[in-house]
Structures are given as C-alpha cells and as structure tokens.
Amino acid sequence: MSVALGSTRPLSVTTTPVDDPGDLFARLPETAPYAWVRHGEGLVAWGEAIRLAVPPGPRRFDWARDRLSDLFGEAHVDDDVTAPGSGPVAFGSFTFDPEAPGSVLVVPRTILARRDGRAWLTTVGERRLDAVTPLRTPGRIRYGDGSLTAPEWEHAVARAVRRIRSGHLEKTVLARDLTAVAERPIDVRLLLARLADRYPECYTFSCAGLVGATPELLVRRTGETIESLVLAGTIPRGADQADDVARGTTLFTSEKNRHEHACAVASVREALDPLCAELKIPEEPELLVLSNVQHLASPVSGRLSDGASVLDVVAAMHPTAAVGGTPTEAALGVIRELEGMDRAGYAGPVGWIDARGDGEWGIALRCAQIEGSRARLFAGCGIMGDSDPASELAEAQAKLRVMQYALEG
Ligand SMILES: C=C(O[C@@H]1C=C(C(=O)O)C=C[C@H]1O)C(=O)O
After folding, report:
1. Does the model's pTM come out above 0.95?
2. 7 occurs within a structural domain
3. For a 10 Å CB count at each end of the chain, is N or C smaller?
4. Domain extent at residue 39
5. How are beta strands 12-17 and 76-79 bridged, if at all?
6. Residues having CB within 6 Å of any atom of ligand 1
7. Is the dihedral of CA 382, 383, 387, 393 positive or negative?
8. Is 30 a catalytic residue?
9. Tens of pLDDT along 134-146?
10. Domain-embedded: residue 341
11. Residue 261: inside a domain
C-alpha cells in the first residue's frame, strides 16, 4: 500500500534561515526535482526522504492527512523560521479520478524556500551536498495523438453537447492528451525554467514527474485564511493589442462563457460554505490574461471555522466544476464515457502541505507527465450546450502550447 523510502524511524527535520538564494530553479539537481513557484517565490525541493503511495478510494485525502499527521507528529523538528512551508513539508499529486492509482505524497530530503523577503533551507535526515549539473536540452520532439485523434475528440465534444441539450446535465469538461517523444531524456529543470519565464503569474509545479504551470489555485491555506482562484471561460489571445481587447470583451460578454464560469463558482461556493465562517466571492468575474489564452477568473477568499487542514479543504473542493462539470456525478459519467483516456494526475490536485496544515494546492492544468524521454501532455475545455467542437479543439490546442513550448523552447 504505502512505500516508505529510507528510514521508518521518526524524521529528523532542521529548518534554518539562509541568504536570498536568487533563482530557485538554478539550485535544483537533475534527479527528482520538486517545485511550487510563482513570481520567483515558493518552494523547490529534491531527494525523497519518504514516498507514500496513496491508496485509491473515496477516503484517499483522509488517509493522506492521517499518515502525514503521524509522520509529522512524531518527527524531531528544529525550525528557526516558523512560516508556512518551513519545517517538514510533503509535496503531493492526486489523480483526477479517486478510483485511479497513482496518487502520491513525497517528503523531500531538502527544501529551499523563498517568501516575503525571507529564505530558508530545510533538511530531513543528514544534510547532503547535491551537485547541480548544467541543464540539458531534450533535442527534437516528435508528437503523436493520445487516446483520441483531433476529429475523434471533436466528435466526443459533439456527443457531450447533445447530452447537455437533452437535459442530462449542464456542463462537462472534456480533455485530450498528446504524446511526445524527445531525442534525449527530458530535464525537468529546463521545463520549469521555461514555464516560469513565460508564465510568471502561474504556479510552476513539479511533483513525481507531473510538471506544468497552472493558473488555477485550488486553495491556499495560511492559518485560518483560505484563498482560491476559480477559472472557467477561455478565449485564445489575439494577434495584436486591439484584437486582444476585442477578444477579452467577447469573452466577458459571452453568455456561454459566463454560464460556464458561474457553474465553476457555484461548485466552489458549495464546497467551501460548510467549512468557512466567512466567504467572499465577487459578483462578477475578472479577466486573467496569460501568454496563450484569456480566462474569466473569480478570486475567492475565506476564513475557516473549524481548523481544517489544507488537505481537508482540497478534499471538499475536488473536483470543482472547472474540471468536472455540473452536476458533478453526471458530468464525471460523461467524462468516463466520452473522453476515452485516463487523466492520471491531470486536473487533479497538486501542491504541498506542512505540519501546521498550511499549504498551497493547484489544479494540475497545462501540464505533462514526464518519464525519461517521453511526455504525455493534457488539456481540456468546459463543454456547454452551445459549445462548438472546432472552437473547443482550438482552445485545447492553445492550452497544449504551454507544454509544447516548455519542451521545445
Ligand atoms: C481544463 C482546463 O482548464 C480549465 C477549463 C477552462 C475553460 O474551459 O474555459 C478554463 C480554465 C480551467 O479551469 C485545462 O487547461 O486543461
């Protein structure tokens, strides 16, 4: 069930303040890099002190929380920083489908963090020196269809639209995958550096081979405060500034996109309401403009009422209608039936948690699963009753470009 690497004795954890390390990614060795970074701040980590394979099932988040609270509870911790992300930390990636295997938690051996003008280093066990080798380029990339070809995927979208029009559900989200094979093994650090450079407002992440830059913050917990950024409703960027502004206006006034966004916001409200003493959700979304697409975005904030950990909040929220649909069960049924692929960690929660229960988790979007010289890229779109399959395909392609750029430069 669970695989623990290294010692099963209590963890010995030391956090000390360090001078500003500058570019966090430049400090990563090539093997097993972990990351959660936005605007140059966050955590990078390497080495694996503990790896837990989370058993699939409806109680997987509870299992993860309980195992971590045992591990962290019995650890010997010497923490001179006491900030969110200091002391022992676990990175995690959960599969989209609770019944799919592959969810994992890793307590890295070394964690380097930088936040609000402070920086610190955490080591688990003996402090070791890890050589930082130069970045390696993967060479030529050859792409192939994933589970469905583009026309097959458009056909699946058309079927989902019919299902929605016949009143079975309001919204679903269909995704597709692409395969990529590089000439040489893929250096995850190079992908991280390129992603962070082009998408600084996204969360550049790496966890157990799942690598990407997601704009969608599922939840950040800092003490009793939580924040989230709900995204749904997308239009590709324009050819020039005037076109861009016109597209932004089209997106903002599009009934289809506003409805799609409202479904996502409603699912987040429903999940967070029972956990919160206070919850703020703006009445109207705003525009989030990224290098490849524009999104409708609603920043959410709240105050927890009962000391839930960040994983408890993740458990309550996943899957939001931004990646599942409305109503959830009907939408998941359509995804299982029409998408024809295993989403693995794509569209699942990815992030980190510390011993206080603080942490940051995103929805794993604009990402790929990397294995040696191979990658599997993912992207999906919210489907409504008036979705046009060709436009949805164009949107999925715009989203796939994030990882294509990371691989190709
Ligand atoms: C499903 C993805 O993105 C989600 C779907 C969106 C949409 O359909 O408009 C927008 C943002 C995300 O919530 C993806 O990037 O793969």
Report:
1. yes
2. no
3. N
4. 12-133+144-408
5. parallel
6. 173, 175, 216, 231-234, 295, 322-323, 365-366, 379-382, 399
7. positive
8. no
9. 999 999 999 999 9
10. yes
11. yes
